[in-house]
Design brief:
This protein is of the alpha+beta class. It has a single domain, classed as Immunoglobulin-like (Sandwich), CATH 2.60.40. It is built from two helices and eleven strands; from the N terminus they run ααβββββββββββ. The strands form two sheets. Strands 1, 6, 7, 9, 10 and 11 form a six-stranded mixed beta sheet that branches. A hairpin with a 2-residue loop joins strand 3 and strand 4. It is elongated.
Amino acid sequence: MRTNQADDDLMAEVARLVNELDPPPPGLVERTQFAVALDDIDRHVQLEVAQWADTRPLAGVRGGLPGTITFFVGDLTVMVNVTRTGERQRIDGWLVPAGAHGVEVRVADHGSTVTTADEGGRFVLTEVPRGTTQLLVRMNAEQSRTVVTPTVDL
């Protein structure tokens, strides 16, 4: 399809206005890349994406989050309580169904912290850096299933 100079000029003006009046949020590209960078997941494991159990949006929110956040997918519920401890945070979590499932907390630009929930499904991570955060729950070996939450700015 061939365009003329007037069309090109009009489209350039529309692009300029969109970028000026409704620019993408700062860090959007970096947050998106972090959310999808799950290179260490075994390709043979079933990966499921959990949903936030609240109707309020999480993306890009800072400081206004509730202390307790609940995610769910299928038969799994992941509930975490976040407590700020200075520049870091403590994450207390519970998994239903309970079990000794692996839990990984990924924080953009800070790497991961890994633990295992106890038989009751409870886990605690202290001294977790603040930032764009995502949880992965590796269900026990018989299920070969990994659940990942959406990213949250904590």
